[in-house]
Amino acid sequence: MGQLDGKVAIVTGGGSGIGKGIAKAFVEEGCTVVIAARNADRLHAAAKELGGDAGAAGPVVAIPTDVTNEEQMVNLFSKTMEWFGRLDILVSNSGAFDGAPVEDLTMEQWQRVLQVNVTGPFLGAREAFKIMKKQGGGRIINIGSISAQRPRHSSLPYSTSKYAVTGLTHSLALEGRDFGIAVSVLHPGNVMVERRADGKSTTGRDEGVEPMISTADMARTALLMATLPADANMLEAIVLPLGQDYLGRG
Predict the structure, then answer these.
(1) Which pLDDT value is given to residue 179?
(2) Tens digit of pLDDT for each residue in 210-235?
């Protein structure tokens, strides 16, 4: 038997990277997973790779969604309930990165990152709370970043957004605890995802090749968070390469 048998999860940003890794780990433990992202082709390819995409039959269903679009987010959750009748876990993983020296930043850069990284998880939590309160509980896992604690150079929009995700998580955890809703934030360090295939920073500064961990490392931690007893919550977790410059990073 799987640890998540009979459970239903939504994973945003599920077409690649950490989101895809988490979806894979959940499916392997018996969970039905709805993956969502803007890139429909990549999303459907990921669903097929994980053994699903056959309509509402599962175990993996793809629903193309822009997490910054309120109507599309409402549709994501309503479709999940229409097909499966419940929602046990939400993983808000969709993310955007952009940065430059502050004097060179545009409003478009600033707003895009904040909308994806903060408005997206807010909309997801709002819709999940509507469902989970009626169900008597559930779990929300927000994907943060160590940039919420140790900013990199030229990452003002991203670091600001991830600080906000921590505040969002703590506020939601407070609101949810009387209703059996556990809300957590998982902070990754350097993870080998598609946009970091060369092992280097994406800030625009050449900091050389950095230590990396795999998406499977993040997925194992998300699975631990998702399978804790109903009366326990791992509020925050940091997972990073042992050799990464984090302590003392400025």
Answers:
(1) 98
(2) 889 999 999 999 999 999 999 999 99
Q: Which of 119, 122, 158, 190 is catalytic?
A: 158
- Residue 28: which H helix or E strand, with range? helix 17-28
Q: What is the pLDDT of residues 65-98, one digit of tens each?
A: 999 999 999 999 999 999 999 999 999 999 999 8
- In this structure, how many other beta carbons lie within 10 angstroms of the beta carbon of residue 159? 21
| pTM score above 0.85 | yes
- DSSP 3-state assignment of 90? strand
Token duo for residue 162: 């991830």
Tokens matching residue 204: 């625009």
Q: Considering only CA atoms, which of 92, 77, 201 is closest in space to residue 132? A: 77
- pLDDT beyond 70 at 31: yes
To 5 degrees, how large is the angle CA 131–CA 237–CA 15? 60
DSSP state of 6: T
Cis check: omega of the bond before 59, within 30 degrees of 0: yes
**Three-state DSSP state, 222:** helix
The string of DSSP letters for 199-223 reads SB-SSSS---B---B-HHHHHHHHH
Domains and CATH numbers, the chain: 25-31+76-239 (3.40.50.720)
Token couple for 168: 């969002």
Tell me the three state secondary structure of residue 11: strand
Two tokens, residue 172:
């939601």
Question: What count of residues does the chain have?
Answer: 250
| 158 classed as catalytic | yes
Residues forming a β-bridge with 209 = 200
